[in-house]
Design goal:
Distance between the termini of chain B: 32 Å
Number of strands of chain B: 11
CATH topology of chain B: Immunoglobulin-like
Radius of gyration of chain A: 19 Å
CATH architecture of chain B: Sandwich
CATH superfamily of chain A: Glutaredoxin
CATH architecture of chain A: 3-Layer(aba) Sandwich
Low-confidence stretches of chain B: 5-20
Mean pLDDT of chain B: 91
Number of domains of chain B: 1
Oligomer: heterodimer
CATH topology of chain A: Glutaredoxin
Number of strands of chain A: 8
Number of helices of chain A: 5
Low-confidence stretches of chain A: 1-23
Shape of chain B: globular
Structural class of chain B: alpha+beta
Structural class of chain A: alpha/beta
Shape of chain A: globular
C-alpha cells in the first residue's frame, strides 16, 4: 500500500515536472537574470547573411525583400528562458516603430510550427511579426550565432549595424534611441 | 515584500561571508542551490539543475531514457556569465575553465563530447539541435551588457563538491572568477 502511494507520488511529481519543462529550462523566478537595455554597435558593418525561411503557415520570407527597412532579426527558441522573456518587448518595439519603417523577424531554432504556435499564443502582447522556422539550424549557423537569444539589426542598406547577445528589453528607451537615427522614416 | 522574497533575501544574507564576493542561496520550492560571484565587472552563477529536472527537459525533446540518464546525472548547472562592467569586450572558451575536485583539475565536460555521444546513439536531428542550443556556449564574446544562460556539466558524480574557475580575456589580459564549494545535486 505504502509502496503504491509512493509510486503514485513519484508519478505525480514526474507529471508536474514534465508539465513545467515542456515549456522551458528549469529556472526559478528569483534567479532570473535581468534583461539588459542596450545594443552593441558593430564597428565595421558588413552585409547581412542571407535569410530566407518559411513562417508557421509555410509562407516564405526573405530578408532581401525588406531592403529599405530597419530590420530586427532575433534568433530564439521556446525553451530558452531569456528568449521567452524578451519576446513581448520585441512586439512592443514593432508596434512603436513600424510606421517609421522598422520590421522584426524572429527565427526559431530547431522547433516545429505547433510548438512555436502554442507558446506564442500565450504571450501578451502576442507577436504580429513573422515567426520563421529554422528547423535544421542552418540559418543560425550561417549568422554565426553562438548562444540564444542573439539579435541583429540590419540597416536600410542590408548591413548588420547592431547585435545583442542575451535577453533584452527591446522597447526600452535606450534601445529605441539607438535605433531611431537609422529608421527610414523619422516621426 | 512577500514572504517568499523575504525568505530568499534572508537565505542570501545568511551565507554571504563579510567581504566575500561569493553568495549562495537555494530555491525554497525545488531546493536547487545557486552559487554566484562578481569579479572584474563580470557576473557568474551556477544553479543546480536537479536530475529530475534534466530528465523531464530532455525526455520532452525526444531523448531516449538511457541518454537522458547519462546527462541528468552528470552534475548539471544552469550557468550565467554576464559582462556587466568589464573594461571592454570579453572573450572566453570553456576549455580554459577548470573544475577542481579531490585534487584533480579538468575543464567542464565539452558540448562536442556530448554531441559525439548523441551522434553515436543515433539521436534525431531535432533532439541534437535542441541539445546543442540549450548548452552554455563553448566559446563566446560579450560586450558590456551581453550575456548567456545555458546548461553546463562537470561530469562529476552526484554529491561531488568542486571549485569552478572561469577565465576570460579582455584586450589580451586574462581575468578569473571563482566559485568555491559547489555541490553536485543528487
Amino acid at each position: 500500500m505504502s509502496c503504491a502511494r509512493a509510486e503514485n507520488g513519484m508519478k505525480r511529481s514526474l507529471f508536474f515536472l514534465l508539465l513545467v519543462f515542456v515549456a522551458g529550462l528549469p529556472v526559478i523566478a528569483a534567479d532570473l537574470p535581468p534583461l539588459t537595455h542596450g545594443l552593441t554597435v558593430v564597428a565595421d558593418p558588413k552585409p547581412a547573411p542571407a535569410l530566407r525561411l518559411a513562417d508557421l503557415d509555410g509562407k516564405l520570407h526573405d530578408l532581401a525583400d525588406l531592403k529599405g527597412k530597419l530590420v530586427v532579426v532575433n534568433f530564439w527558441a521556446t525553451w530558452c528562458p531569456p528568449c521567452r522573456r524578451e519576446m513581448p518587448s520585441l512586439e512592443r518595439l514593432r508596434a512603436r516603430l513600424e510606421k517609421q519603417g522598422l520590421a522584426v523577424l524572429a527565427v526559431d531554432v530547431g522547433e516545429d510550427a505547433d510548438t512555436v504556435f502554442s507558446f506564442t499564443g500565450q504571450l501578451e502582447p502576442a507577436p504580429v511579426f513573422p515567426l520563421l522556422l529554422d528547423r535544421d539550424s542552418a540559418a543560425v549557423q550561417r549568422w554565426k550565432v553562438k548562444g540564444l537569444p542573439t539579435t541583429f539589426v540590419v540597416d536600410t542598406q542590408g548591413r548588420v549595424i547592431f547585435r545583442a547577445v542575451g535577453g533584452r528589453e527591446f522597447d526600452h528607451d535606450t534601445v529605441v534611441d539607438q535605433l531611431a537615427p537609422h529608421l527610414p522614416r523619422q516621426p | 515584500m512577500n514572504a517568499r522574497l523575504f525568505a530568499y533575501l534572508l537565505a542570501v544574507l545568511a551565507v554571504l561571508p563579510a567581504g566575500a564576493a561569493q553568495a549562495q542561496h537555494s530555491d525554497p520550492e525545488t531546493g536547487a542551490v545557486t552559487w554566484e560571484t562578481r569579479a572584474h565587472g563580470v557576473a557568474l552563477s551556477l544553479t543546480q539543475i536537479l536530475p529530475d529536472q534534466a530528465r523531464a527537459f530532455y525526455l520532452n525533446r525526444g531523448f531516449p531514457p538511457p541518454a537522458v540518464e547519462r546527462y541528468a546525472t552528470a552534475c548539471v548547472y544552469m550557468t550565467v556569465l554576464r559582462n556587466d562592467a568589464a573594461p571592454g569586450e570579453l572573450s572566453f572558451r570553456l576549455a580554459d575553465w577548470s573544475v577542481h575536485s579531490e585534487g584533480q583539475s579538468r575543464p567542464p565536460k565539452s558540448v562536442e563530447d556530448w554531441m559525439a555521444q548523441w551522434r553515436s546513439l543515433g539521436l534525431t536531428e531535432a533532439a541534437q539541435i535542441a541539445f546543442r542550443w540549450a548548452q552554455f556556449p563553448p566559446a563566446q564574446e560579450y560586450a558590456v551588457g551581453e550575456w548567456n544562460q545555458g546548461m553546463l556539466t562537470t561530469g562529476l558524480p552526484p554529491g561531488s563538491k568542486f571549485d569552478l574557475v572561469a577565465r576570460w580575456t579582455v584586450a589580451g589580459k586574462t581575468f578569473e572568477g571563482k566559485l568555491e564549494n559547489v555541490l553536485c545535486a543528487r
